[in-house]
Amino acid sequence: MTSETVPLIGTDPDALEDFYREHVEAVQDFVARRVADPHRAADLTADVFLAAIDSAHKYRPGRGTPLGWIYGIARNVVANDGRRRWRAAKAGRRISGRALAEPDDLALLEDRIDAEARSRRLYEAMDRLSASERAVLELVALDGLAVADAAAVLRIKPAAARVRLHRARTKMRSDLAPPSPALVTAPSEAL
Question: Keyword annotations for this protein (predicted)?
């Protein structure tokens, strides 16, 4: 692989494969010299090539060889991983030996989770709406805008906003309605 083809690895799968095959052992060796855990070394090697794909367009042949460039990326990836692990260890030392939540706190949290179950159901139902229906519903029901104002925000006609709002409310009612007793059969009837 020549220096001129390195920028192609971000867009050309064949160029990436050639680049990977040519440099994977060197990158693995580079990482293995700095990391003792084989799983972490494999993850970091993959991260190096992902970073290379993302920054391939920045490669300049006049600034060094492709191997030097990938080593620079590997150095940054390994250093970032080391800093992240150091911060995690430092945070772990700061909280070690401390109870993160007391039993009373856990009971309050469980009560709060139970209380928010309806809200979660509402958000799940909203996730099933189209983006345009959800936008109108949020502006009217959550943000308190009038339909005409919501239409202006969305740059649509008020009639279109009313139609979208009607559809959204209909879908929400359908999604949130309890199952009809006629549709629920007793176990003995199902046999």
Answer: DNA-binding, Sigma factor, Transcription, Transcription regulation
CA nearest to 71, candidates 110, 39, 30? 30
Using alpha carbons, list the distances in angstroms from residue 1 to 18, 19, 23, 102: 7, 7, 10, 60
Q: For 174, how many CA atoms within 13 A lie in the half-sphere containing its CB?
A: 8
CA-CA distances (angstroms) from residue 151 to 5, 105, 171? 50, 44, 20
CATH number at residue 54: 1.10.1740.10
Q: Is residue 190 part of a domain?
A: no
Task: Tell me the three state secondary structure of residue 52.
Answer: helix
Length of the chain in terms of residues written: 191
Average pLDDT per consecutive 10 residues, the chain (191 residues; last block may be shorter): 82 93 93 91 96 92 87 93 93 71 74 78 88 92 89 93 96 83 55 47
* Global model pTM greater than 0.85: no
Q: Give me the domain span that covers residue 59.
A: 3-95
Is the dihedral angle over the CA atoms 177, 182, 186, 191 positive or is it negative? negative
Contacts of 44 (CB under 8 A, 6+ apart): 31, 35, 74, 77, 78, 81
